[in-house]
Structure formats: structure tokens, C-alpha cells
Amino acid sequence: MRTWTVVEDKRHNAFTDLIFWQDQFWLIYTTSPWHLASKRSQLVLLSSSDAQSWQEAARFDGSGEDIRDPKLAIIQDQLTLIALLNKSIDPQPYTSIVTRSADGKQWIPFEAITPSGWLLGKPKSIDQINWYAPAHRIDSHQVVLRKSQDGMQWEKMSTICDQAGADETALEFLPDGELIAATRIEGQGSLFGSEQAGTSISISAPPYTNWEQTAFSTITRLDGPNLFTYNGEIYAVGRYQPKISKTLQKQGSILSPKRTTLFLLDKHGLTHLLDLPSSGDTAYAGTTIYEEEVYISYYTNKPDKNYFWLLGMILPTQVNLSVITLSDVKTLIKTQRENNE
Question: DSSP assignment, residue 303?
Fold first, then answer.
């Protein structure tokens, strides 16, 4: 694994996504004074031909509101950016907005996604015509699957998850065309976490009108999940809490250190593979596969520190890029499976 820092400017840089398009890497992140809401937050889009030297391509603000959680997709041959708007100091976004560009530099004004009030996750497509995305509402604890062809209007297909604390969700297509979803479950805890917190795994077959929960993993509450596929295996990247206790460090506690971690994902749950150099307030990764390697963008406090999450939220964070050779990951999986037999 190779890791380097892309952005380090004494601000709180967070919530990344990454894509490869038009022979360029495109990396987007939120820059803000801190993790919590700020009207001074902005989205910064960078481009690079080699993932080493980056240039700013565009910058976006929330027109007087907090803007965060950007997601990138190529819809109708255009680079499409989806983001969330938020008014609450303790971030609870209330709607999704979208813009698009033919070159990554000139962008149309943001428009509200319809129907309004839903927080859209990263879109995925198997045919580049029909796009599917998870969407949740903080006030309903419900995650639904939505479908679109233009990235603007999203019709409801089905309910992925409907349980207390259901939150951010990521999708990926299985080799047989099924969809698998990983959903962050907050549980019914407090700032010190919850014994009910974890990650719900669900699967749906075409036409994706019904979902079955196949597992509930307590290895981690996969905050800001990102899923990708390589050689028939599904991988997840998200926030991981190495230490869990039954007092002040339950799953999701603000007093616990966190990591950005790569997991293997299947219908039976999550398997821990490796931690990326990270600490404190971290994760919300973007991934793209290029020349048999996976490029992973994420944010973190200083990796050589071990800040607890709350402290990390108010300290500066950097945007890192880790590159992992996928054949090495396959070897790691084989070793882990042999050890479990």
C-alpha cells in the first residue's frame, strides 16, 4: 500500500469522493472550519492525470448554507455532482442538490433533486442508462432505493431498510445482477454510542422491488460507506472503531478513536482486511480502480496521532490517497480464509 497527502491546509477537509473520467482522476471534498455545520463550507473539485499532482477544477458553496457529502457519477456522459444541504449545527442534512458538467470546469447551477427531502447516496449503474441510488431521511429512519436516467428525477423502487437508526447506505452490483446494500445503523444510543449500532447487509434481485436483510454486522458501524467490485468480490471502505466497551465507548462513540478501513463484504457480513493510515475524525472514502490497483481517497487527522473522534472533529484534517494493488488484497483474503478454517 502506498499513501500520500493530497490536501493539508490547516482546515477541516472531509467527505471525499473519487472517480476516473476523461483520462483524469477527479477528487472532491468538503473544506470547512470544522466537522460540524458551517456557512463557510465549500466543495473543492480537483483533477489530476497521475493522482500525484492536482489542480483545482471547480469550487462550490451552499449559497449561505452548510454544504457537504459530495458524490460523483458519470450520468449521460457528464460529470454529475450530488451534494447535501444542512442547517443544523449537529449536521442533519435536509435535501439533495445536483449539478453537472461536460468538462469538469464549467457547471450548471445547482438544482434540487426531486422528490425533495431525501438524502441521496452514490448512484450506480449496470448499463449506464438506468441509475440506482440509496436515499434516506433522517426524520424517518428509512432507506429506499431510487432510480433515474437523468440524475435529476428519482422515482422510488423499493424500501431497502426500515429500522431505528437507519442512515447512510452504499450500493454495489453483484456479478449476477443483484444489488447489495450496506446501511449504517445508529441504534438507539447516545453520544457514547449504542450496543444496537452496526451495519445492515441487504440484497435485492432485479427488478429491485424487494429486499432481504441477510446479515447484521457488529464489526463496525460503517459510517460513510463506499462499495466497489473486483474479480467478483465486493469490498467496503468506511469508518471503523477499533476499541469497543460497554460504557463510554460503545459502537459509534464520540470518545473513541476511529480508522478508515477496507473490508470484504458479502451477504454474510463484513470481514476486516486492513486499516489505512488514519486517526480521529476519518473515513468517507471515494474509490476507483485503475490498472489493477484501487485508489482510495479519504480524510483523517494526523495519522500518527490517536485522537478520539470528538476532538478530531474540531482539529484540522487532511485528504489522503492510498493505492492498493488488488492482487495483494486477494492474497490477504486467501490468508484470512485459511486462518478461519
Answer: T
Query: Residue 109 belongs to what H/E stretch?
Result: none
**How far is Cα 191 from Cα 110, in angstroms, rounded to an integer?**
34
Domain harbouring 260, CATH code: 2.120.10.10
- Decide: 150 and 207 in contact? Cβ < 8 Å: no
Asked whether the predicted pLDDT for residue 55 surpasses 90, the reply is: yes
Question: At a CB cut-off of 8 Å and minimum separation 6, what does 96 contact?
Answer: 82, 83, 84, 85, 112, 113, 118, 119, 120, 135
Query: Would you state the torsion angle of the CA atoms of residues 132, 165, 97, 239, taken in this order, to the nearest 10 degrees?
Result: -80
Q: Which domain holds residue 247?
A: 2-340
Cβ-contact 185, 200 below 8 angstroms: yes
> DSSP letter string over 166-226?
EEEEEEEE-TTS-EEEEEEE--S-BTTB-TT-EEEEEEE-TT----EEEEEE-S---SS-E
DSSP state letters, 238-264: EEE-S---SSS--TT-TTS--EEEEEE
Quick count: other Cβ atoms within 10 Å of Cβ 210?
11
Q: Which three-class secondary structure state does DSSP give residue 338? A: helix
Look up the pTM and report it. Answer: 0.96
Mean pLDDT over residues 2-8, rounded? Answer: 98
Averaged pLDDT, 37-63: 98
Cα separation of 111 and 101, whole Å?
13
- pLDDT (tens digit, 9 = 90+) per residue, 232-274? 999 999 999 999 998 899 999 999 999 999 999 999 999 999 9
As given in the structure block, the three cell numbers for residue 169 are: 447506505
Residues forming beta bridges with residue 137, ordered by sequence position: 142
**What is the pLDDT, as a whole number, of residue 341?**
62
**Residue pair 316/290 in contact by the 8 Å Cβ criterion:** no
Number of domains present in the structure of the chain: 1
Closest residue by Cα to residue 122 from 140, 96, 101: 96
Percent of the chain with pLDDT over 70: 99
- Tally the C-alpha atoms within 13 A of residue 31's C-alpha that lie toward its C-beta: 19
pLDDT digits (tens, 9 = 90+) for 317-327: 999 999 999 99
